Amino acid sequence: MAPETSVAEVRDLRRLVDRARQMLELNSHRGQQSTTGDLARGRQFWVYDRAGRPCRRCGTPIRQTLLGDEGRERTTFACPTCQRRGSP
Asked: Does some domain include residue 84?
């Protein structure tokens, strides 16, 4: 799912919330954080901080964008292929 997807557009919000909770719980008990489950240096994240590097799933370069209102932006990372707007 694309980072700019609104909550109203999320098809299965319960599943997304459950996954987010799972990731927070898993990462709260260890010094290193990971979304991939691999704690080896450089392999911890699917897209975070990987701008320009290939997506681990499809190989498309990861994009970095700013989202939010001026002065309150946040940096996001996403695969434009795997995380298209409207994708699950």
From this structure: no
pLDDT in tens, 30-82: 777 777 777 778 777 788 889 999 999 899 999 999 988 888 888 999 999 98
Residues 6 or more apart in contact with residue 58 via CB below 8 angstroms: 79, 81, 82
**Which residues touch 16 (CB under 8 Å, ≥6 apart)?**
1, 10
- Residue 14 φ/ψ, nearest 5 degrees: -60, -45
Per residue, the 3-state secondary structure of 54-79, as one string, reads ECCCCCCEEEEEEECCCCCCEEEEEC
**83, part of any domain:** no
Does residue 28 form part of some domain?
yes
Q: For residues 67 and 11, what is the distance between their CA atoms, to the nearest angstrom? A: 21
- Count the domains in the chain: 1
